[in-house]
Amino acid sequence: MKIGLDFDGVLSDCGKLKSYAANKLYGLYIPPEKFKKEIVIGGGHLTAEQYHNLQKMIYGTREMGLLMEPVGGMFEAISQLLAWGHTILIVTSRGQAELEIAKEWSVKQGLALDFIGVGCSVSKATACVGLDVYIDDDLDKLEPLVGIVEHRFLFSWDYNSHLDEGTIAERIGSWVEFCKTIESL
Ligand SMILES: [Mg+2]
């Protein structure tokens, strides 16, 4: 099968990095698992401008960007999926500069993966044509894939647990669960 993966929040754990950056930039402690735009801005922890600056720093600078930690179980799962003969494509909303950092990070982690960066606020639908499976931690990114990608999965985190995925996607709690699910398709 052709499997598409989102990058931030699926391969890399950006919640931890956002939490670290909020502390460094603004002296605030915001737990990683709560670090999602609508929660942080909606809850009055950061202004929209502060959030934007933080994002620019963690996605757009190598000093911070390369500090991302991998999501637990990711390496084992990707090796397993490749060993089963599946094809993997990373489809991310990162723009060009941020994409280069993600690629550099992946190479440093020993991952040889193909990437498509569609750019911020652009639908992933065109890039995902031909994929059998796609997993993202952002429900908004999965919605346009209905009718395009047959098997859509939402990588479950505390920060998206309040959302009703309905028929848009099936929730997956971990990389181990993702592998088991792929095996059963
Ligand atoms: Mg993501």
Automatic annotation (TrEMBL):
SUPFAM superfamilies: HAD-like
Gene Ontology process terms (BP): deoxyribonucleotide catabolic process
Classification via Pfam families: NT5C
Coiled coil start-end: none
InterPro entries to which the protein is assigned, alphabetical: 5'(3')-deoxyribonucleotidase, HAD-like_sf, HAD_sf
Catalytic-site annotation from UniProt: 6, 8
Protein name: Nucleotidase
Phylogenetic lineage: Bacteria, Candidatus Kaiseribacteriota
